[in-house]
Amino acid sequence: MTTTLDRPTALRDTPVRKERRPRRSTPLTIAMLAALAYFLLPLLWLLIASTKSAHDLIDSFGLWFSDAPQLLTNVKDTFTQDDGVFLTWLLNTLLYAGVSAVGAAVLAAAGGYGFAKFRFRGDRAAFNLVLGAVMVPTTALAIPTYLLFAEAGLVNTPWAVILPSLVNPFGLYLMRIYAADAIPDSLLEAARIDGAGEVRIFFRIALRLLGPGLVTVLLFTLVATWNNYFLPLIMLNDPDLYPVTVGLSSWAAQAQNGGAGASSDMLALVVTGSLLSILPLVVAFLLLQRYWQSGLAAGGVKQ
Amino acid sequence: MAAPRRTRSAGPLFVAPFMILFLLLFLTPLGYAAYLSLFQERLIGGTAFVGLDNYVQALGDSQLLHGVGRVALFFVLQVPVMLALAVLFALALDSGLLRLARVIRLGVFVPYAVPSVVAALMWGYLYGPDFGPFAQFARELSLPVPDFLSDTWMLGSLANIVTWEFTGYNMIILYAALRTVPTELYEAAAMDGAGAWRIAWSVKLPALRPALLLCLLFSVIGSFQLFNEPNLLTKIAPDVITSDYTANLYAYSLAFTGQQVNYAATVSFLLGLVIVIASYAVLLTANRRRTP
């Protein structure tokens, strides 16, 4: 085959070892494509179901299009139901997830940098405390937080969802590992000799070198908050404050209770709303994959 | 790795914002829960200090014990399957033998970006005994319709949803770990006559250890606080998923339906404790195996 032509150059570059490029395996590829089908099937169903009327959802075969596709009608209905509350939910989600993710990433980056590059009294104890907190489950914490926020009058405000999401112990752990590796001490030393202050060094130099780690924490906090259900479920009871997850589940409950009649139309809205709610995150992951994968590599290896 | 040797005062400055919020939003709720768990709301006389009475009650509370038992069973059923799949997929991706590797990698990962609410809604519909596609298929072929939402199948159905959601996430962590193994190791093994399977077993799997431990730890935490998926399926299978189906559902219904705030705090606190203990048990077992 044509590869024989390349061999001399490969040999010249690395005289001892020969380029190991295993032949592609068709059986393995087929097995993995079968696995892929399992992971994509529900999403395919969602895509197909979004084109159906409430009636066709029940009557036509689930994994193929019905005779009368009406995706645009469904999208329009989703956005106009209850005076456009779905758009409010999407915007709320964007606000909660955006503020939480940026805040959590910056806090974790500064903290991780502080722990990685400075020695101070109690640093080890403080870090171990945070490390231990990684194991404390967020939902076990949610009810106590609710009770506390109820005392403080924060329940049923956006803060009730945003504040708890700002503290990401695993993010801090990840950023500490990342900062230790990615920021050379000599660079910090040089900046100090040039007379730069510590805060300036952090924002001008460190934060840039922390890039991929920062994107990883940002993206995973974004997903965690975007997909969060338990916390907003208990913290909020005003539908205008709901994020899209709680909103969709309230619609799903209506569709379920309604059975036949007017509210059975809700089923189509739940399905189309679900599709619309997952698109932004899927796109974000696809666009940013180069960054989050290299960031994850740092966290997965070192313990 | 160069040890940080600086003793400047800037360290606390960078750490302070996180630590202050950590104190306020992490430790304070825990402390508050601990405090609340020592009281009881009485019809007469208001709130009374009762010491550890709530804990004594919780330890003998069959609803709580069943909930914890169910999530423990869930953990034993679901996590090994999910992690085994994630390891296999990561090894397949790393082997360089796959065509379309990028597409497969992202496709398996995509469910992670889907909210568990949407995942549960989708699967709930797919499971449906009347017009779910599986039921439609079975009827078309005149086969018995599997009742995924029945009492017998429910835990497996929930396990399937969680596996669907998180296999790709674990796979990516493991794959990222594999990418950082120096290729010299593989070459040395190949030089010694090791085949692809042998290399996977003797070189790659040991290298995956720390990452696998991390995945396991996250799975312990995730399994024991199972809430979203059962809570959403409650609506379509109310007789199967009762309000005490998992420990977390139980805590939720105590606090928000039963208005038993103090007892809910006790249950939350105990659940957190169970998870921390289970996590430590996982870590300890793993560490003991490393040093025989």
Automatic annotation (TrEMBL), chain A:
Task: State the InterPro entries in the record.
Answer: MetI-like, MetI-like_sf
Q: Transmembrane stretches, by residue range?
A: 27-48, 94-115, 127-149, 161-180, 201-226, 266-288
Q: Which GO terms describe its biological process?
A: transmembrane transport
Q: Which PROSITE patterns does this UniProt record tie to the protein?
A: ABC_TM1 (PS50928)
Single GO cellular component annotation? plasma membrane
Where is the protein found, in the record's own terms? Cell membrane
Pfam families for the chain: BPD_transp_1 (PF00528)
Q: How does it sit in the membrane?
A: Multi-pass membrane protein
Q: Which UniProt keywords apply?
A: Cell membrane, Membrane, Transmembrane, Transmembrane helix, Transport
Family annotation (SUPFAM superfamilies): MetI-like
Major subcellular location class: membrane
Please report the stretch or stretches of sequence annotated as the ABC transmembrane type-1 domain: 90-288
Report residue spans for region: Disordered. Answer: 1-23
Q: PANTHER family from the xrefs?
A: ABC TRANSPORTER PERMEASE PROTEIN MG189-RELATED, ABC TRANSPORTER PERMEASE PROTEIN MG189-RELATED-RELATED
Give the family this protein belongs to, as stated in its UniProt record.
Belongs to the binding-protein-dependent transport system permease family.
What is the name attached to this protein's record? Carbohydrate ABC transporter permease
What is the species listed in this Swiss-Prot or TrEMBL entry? Streptomyces roseirectus
From TrEMBL, chain B:
Q: Keyword set for this entry? A: Cell membrane, Membrane, Transmembrane, Transmembrane helix, Transport
Provide the primary localization.
membrane
List the CDD domains hit by this protein, alphabetically.
TM_PBP2 (cd06261)
Instruction: Mention any one GO cellular component term assigned to this protein in its UniProt record.
Output: plasma membrane
TM regions (residue ranges): 12-35, 71-91, 103-126, 153-178, 207-227, 263-286
- What's an example GO BP annotation here? transmembrane transport
Domain of life assignment = Bacteria
Q: What does the record say about its membrane topology?
A: Multi-pass membrane protein
Q: Coiled coil: which residue ranges?
A: none
Q: Where in the cell is it found?
A: Cell membrane
- Annotated ranges, domain ABC transmembrane type-1: 68-282
**InterPro entries given in the database record:** MetI-like (IPR000515), MetI-like_sf (IPR035906), UgpAE/MalFG_permease (IPR050809)
Tell whether Secreted is among the UniProt keywords.
no
- Protein family (similarity comment): Belongs to the binding-protein-dependent transport system permease family.
User: What name does UniProt use for this protein?
Assistant: Sugar ABC transporter permease
What species was this sequence derived from? Streptomyces roseirectus
Kindly list the organism's lineage: Bacteria, Bacillati, Actinomycetota, Actinomycetes, Kitasatosporales
